[in-house]
Specification:
The chain contains 4 helices and 24 strands. It is mostly beta strands. The chain is globular and about 50 Å long.
């Protein structure tokens, strides 16, 4: 079992779990390829145009910008003035709210970006809610060495990965205007308070 399995209960039974290898940051780095591979397997329930597939039960509001490769599953809302780009897979019953930006992210059933959020290079489990203005950042612009360094379960995880936001476990709640610094792993059902900061970067 890898770290993703321990945080997202439906990972292995999803189309992603059947294809992806490595840890969360490796999977995110190959998100566009994974989405492209799944696109070829979709049925007539999806409207497919180029490298973008949207389930026929999903609502896409006027003014939403979607860039492929992209799959949006059943019963989702893609709201006005949002931007989805960089290779994203969105499971059923999800919301990408007004003014939100979703970049290179895999998003599981029932998760929601309320509005004015940024989520980059991340994996979001099921039933996650990001309140207005909360952000999952994806690049350590504040450090001379932006490579991935995470303090996880008392150990340091290191990778040459430059862009990785977070692995967010099932059922997490992220309060309004909270910031998740790049390279975070949130256990299932974590609650991040409004205006909170999560920064798991090791400083050594």
């Amino acid at each position: 079992m890898n770290i993703v399995d321990a945080h997202i209960a439906s990972w292995r039974s999803s189309p992603l779990g059947e294809r992806a290898t490595g840890e969360a940051w490796d999977i995110v780095a190959n998100a566009a390829g994974l989405v492209t591979g799944i696109l070829a397997t979709l049925d007539a329930d999806y409207e497919i145009e180029g490298d973008i597939a949207v389930h026929r039960t999903t609502t896409v509001e006027t003014g939403a910008v979607m860039k492929g490769p992209l799959i949006v599953g059943p019963n989702c809302l893609v709201a006005a003035a949002c931007l989805i780009r960089g290779g994203c897979w969105i499971d059923s019953d999800c919301i990408v709210g007004p003014g939100a930006e979703l970049k290179t992210t895999l998003m599981f059933r029932g998760s929601k970006l309320a509005h004015f959020n940024f989520v980059g290079d991340s994996i979001l489990g099921s039933d996650i809610n990001l309140e207005a203005g909360s952000i999952i950042a994806n690049y350590r612009n504040d450090l001379a060495d932006p490579r991935l360094r995470i303090n996880y379960s008392g150990k340091t995880i290191e990778s040459d990965t430059l862009k990785f936001g977070a692995l967010v476990g099932d059922g997490c709640r992220i309060g309004a205007n909270a910031v998740i610094a790049p390279g975070a792993i949130l256990a299932p059902r974590t609650v991040v308070p409004r205006l909170g900061l999560i920064d798991q970067r090791t400083r050594s």
